[in-house]
């Protein structure tokens, strides 16, 4: 009885041995199976991406995932940014290209223009015609910041130092007055003055004022139009004291008001659009509110109508009774008296 059975197994057989599962398992042995790994994407889209090498356009997520733009406006913005420079993007061309009608395409272009992805500028050609130039912007925030910085630089006055006259002698340097020690003044052992302590050490640093948003620019800016826009902004404080603007803010907002006036909007309509529905407590920054309303509520440009040609009526010559065109009756060119030439 004291002899040990050496043929008995030292431990129970494993459910998986040498990487192979046995044909029969002990029913009393409970094998713990690993839980299935959770799926990486239980729901939603799965991307199968291949890197583009040719014929591609980089589009920002701020346009592809915009919260306020419609799907039609986002599609138009993507299509316009993929076109080469010089391609036609007017309403008629886009309506021929896509199944949407001209009304829906015009509404989508107005959405892109209101959010800064599109700018339509009316310019006058050297021959006197007025044409519309379309500018596509892939990053409106960066464009607004660049425009605001440029306006701030141009609006800041530049002071040129005047040189002293040639006949004036330079002032003689004077020695600084000797500092007399005050019995009640603090001194360090080495004789220097200690730095003054800040009375408010926990005072936060002053916050820098954000630049104003960009405003629409007129297609043809004239001094008279900008002067009328400046006078209009200066008169807002008479209507509402909370709309008191500084000279720098007025210079920044004047092109936006000029763009409204250029499109045929009456000054009373511009004043109603800018001052109606103000917050009860007053805006924190009146210039920023006016710049936002000038951009988002910009009306479309008026339709361009070519001037009708002046048709000169037909007249009968008083001498030969031939028909010729002239504003008043008389003689034709062949029968008109020729002034005698001096020999």
Can you characterise this structure?
With 343 residues, the protein is mainly alpha-helical. Among the domains are: 61-138, Arc Repressor Mutant, subunit A; 223-294, no CATH class. 30% of the residues lie in helices and 6% in strands. It contains 10 helices and 4 strands, in the order ααααββααααααββ. It has helices spanning 61-64, 71-82, 91-97, 102-114, 140-155, 223-234, 236-239, 247-262, 267-275, 286-296; strands spanning 118-124, 130-136, 314-316, 323-325. Strands 1-2 form a two-stranded antiparallel ribbon. Strands 3-4 form a two-stranded antiparallel ribbon. A hairpin with a 6-residue loop joins strand 3 and strand 4. Helix 2 (71-82) crosses helix 4 and helix 6 packs across helix 8. The N and C termini lie far apart (164 Å). 13% of the residues are buried. Mean pLDDT is 76; it is low at 178-189 and 339-343.
The beta-strand count equals: 4
Q: Could you name the ranges where pLDDT drops below 50 across 5 or more consecutive residues?
A: 178-189, 339-343
CATH class of the domain at 61-138: Mainly Alpha
The general outline is flat
- With helices defined by DSSP (H or I, 4 residues minimum), what is the helix count? 10
What integer is the average pLDDT?
A: 76
Query: Biggest sheet, open or closed, and with what strands and sense?
Result: 2 strands, antiparallel
Write the CATH fold name of the domain at 61-138. Answer: Arc Repressor Mutant, subunit A
Question: Would you identify the CATH architecture of the domain at 61-138?
Answer: Orthogonal Bundle
The SS-based structural class is: mainly alpha
Helix content: 25-40%
């Amino acid at each position: 009885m004291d002899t040990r059975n050496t043929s008995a197994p030292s431990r129970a057989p494993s459910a998986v041995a040498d990487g192979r599962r046995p044909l029969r398992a002990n029913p009393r042995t409970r094998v713990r199976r690993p839980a299935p790994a959770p799926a990486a994407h239980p729901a939603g889209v799965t991307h199968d991406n291949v890197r583009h090498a040719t014929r591609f356009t980089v589009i920002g997520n701020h346009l592809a995932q915009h919260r306020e733009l419609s799907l039609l406006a986002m599609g138009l913005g993507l299509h316009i940014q993929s076109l080469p420079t010089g391609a036609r993007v007017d309403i008629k061309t886009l309506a021929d290209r896509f199944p949407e009608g001209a009304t829906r395409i015009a509404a989508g272009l107005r959405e892109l223009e209101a959010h800064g992805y599109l700018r339509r500028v009316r310019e006058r050609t050297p021959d006197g015609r007025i044409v519309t130039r379309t500018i596509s912007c892939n990053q409106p925030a960066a464009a607004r910041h660049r425009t605001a910085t440029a306006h701030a630089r141009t609006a800041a006055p530049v002071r040129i130092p005047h040189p002293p006259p040639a006949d004036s002698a330079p002032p003689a340097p004077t020695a600084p007055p000797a500092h007399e020690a005050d019995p009640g003044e603090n001194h360090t052992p080495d004789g220097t003055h200690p730095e003054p302590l800040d009375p408010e050490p926990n005072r936060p640093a002053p916050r820098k004022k954000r630049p104003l948003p960009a405003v629409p620019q007129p297609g043809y800016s004239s001094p008279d139009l900008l002067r009328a826009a400046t006078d209009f902004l200066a008169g807002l404080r008479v209507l509402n004291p909370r709309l008191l603007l500084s000279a720098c803010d007025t210079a920044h907002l004047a092109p936006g008001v000029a763009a409204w006036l250029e499109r045929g909007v009456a000054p009373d309509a511009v004043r109603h659009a800018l001052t109606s529905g103000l917050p009860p407590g007053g805006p924190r920054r009146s210039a920023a509110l006016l710049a936002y309303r000038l951009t988002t509520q910009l009306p479309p440009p008026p339709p361009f109508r070519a001037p009708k040609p002046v048709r000169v009526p037909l007249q009968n010559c008083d001498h030969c009774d031939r028909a010729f065109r002239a504003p008043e009756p008389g003689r034709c060119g062949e029968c008109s008296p020729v002034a005698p030439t001096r020999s």
